[in-house]
Amino acid sequence: EQDVIDYRKSLAIRVSGFEVPKPVKTFEDCGFAPQIMGAIKKQGYEKPTSIQCQALPVVLSGRDIIGIAKTGSGKTAAFVLPMIVHIMDQPELQKEEGPIGVICAPTRELAHQIYLEAKKFAKAYGIRVSAVYGGMSKLEQFKELKAGCEIVVATPGRLIDMLKMKALAMLRATYLVLDEADRMFDLGFEPQVRSIVGQIRPDRQTLLFSATMPRKVEKLAREILSDPIRVTVGEVGM
Ligand code: ADP
Ligand code: MG
After folding, report:
1. Protein residues near ligand 2, an ion, with CB under 5 A
2. How many CA atoms lie within 13 Å of 83's alpha carbon, on the beta-carbon side?
3. What is the pLDDT of residue 1?
4. What's the whole-number average pLDDT of the chain?
5. Domain named Helicase ATP-binding: which ranges (predicted)?
6. Strand, helix or coil for residue 80
């Protein structure tokens, strides 16, 4: 449809993949529940950013995504908001425990920012968010995870430590986000990332976000995503 093509062009969005959902113009177009709309307004977000306009409908439709956009473009909300919807869509009674949403980020600082953003939107639903990165003792972290949570925001190394200690199980994890995938590789976390992905059920939804798409990240994406849609905003380096 020409309207959609023109609208994407106006947002500097390029897409590829099978049956890409239409980009939205407003948060209302996403069909969010009033609690989420309230939290969005409270944040002062009036309309979605470019990456959000296209990534939100893709992720809300349950598809895997490769999202490529520069720093500061609003990628966090593009994966946090659909994650809240995904969690609320799960059947209420589940025998399994452990997180439903798992987010990996390369550094403690980045993970902490995501943790704060996730908490803002999770609060209205009583969704529990755990931070899994350096700064808290491993014993404290172990205890917190044992108490249960729906979302884990983690750096790869510390998450592996917690998995080894059996602080959490990945049985109900069905929504995996790899944020700043290029930096994760730059910092040498590829083996840890692969190990974590290998411990999460293959029928999960997988989201990979990156500012650049070097060959190694491209290869990982091809291996761990299913029939992904690629969304690129602006010009992107390799
Ligand atoms: P990225 O992960 O792409 O680097 P962030 O998710 O950290 O970007 O967002 C950058 C800034 O933009 C943050 O301060 C965030 O609160 C803000 N932001 C995100 N989405 C919106 C929006 N729709 N409207 C206004 N500000 C937004
Ligand atoms: Mg980010």
Report:
1. 75
2. 34
3. 83
4. 94
5. 56-231
6. helix
Tokens, residue 116? 């704060």
**Cβ of residue 125 lying under 6 Å from some atom of ligand 1:** no
Contact between 30 and 76 (Cβ < 8 Å)? no
Token readout for 7 is: 């609208």
Judge whether residue 173 has pLDDT over 90: yes
Q: pLDDT at residue 61 above 90? A: yes
| Closest C-alpha among 100, 44, 48 to residue 76 | 48
Say yes or no: CB of residue 210 within 6 Å of ligand 1. no
When pLDDT is cut at 50, 70 and 90, the band that residue 238 belongs to is: low
For the segment 87-112, the average pLDDT, to the nearest whole number, is: 88
Q: Which of 32, 45, 236 has the most ligand 1 atoms within 8 A of CB, as the residue to mutate?
A: 45
Q: How far apart are CA 218 and CA 127, in angstroms?
A: 33
The yes/no answer to whether this complex scores an ipTM above 0.90 is: yes
User: Hey, whose CA ends up nearest to atom 12 of ligand 1?
Assistant: 74
Q: How confident is the model at residue 109 (pLDDT cuts 50, 70, 90)?
A: very high
Q: At which residue do the structure tokens 């995501």 appear?
A: 114
Query: Is the beta carbon of 48 within 6 A of some atom in ligand 1?
Result: yes
Alpha-carbon gap, residue 1 to 162, rounded angstroms:
48
Token readout for 133 is: 């990165």
In this structure, what token pair is assigned to residue 63? 């598809």
Q: Closest Cα partner for 57 from 91, 97, 17? A: 17
Band (2; pLDDT cuts 50, 70, 90): very high
Specify the residue for token string 């239409």: 22
Our answer on whether the CB atom of 77 is closer than 6 Å to any ligand 1 atom is yes
27 CA: nearest ligand 1 atom: 23
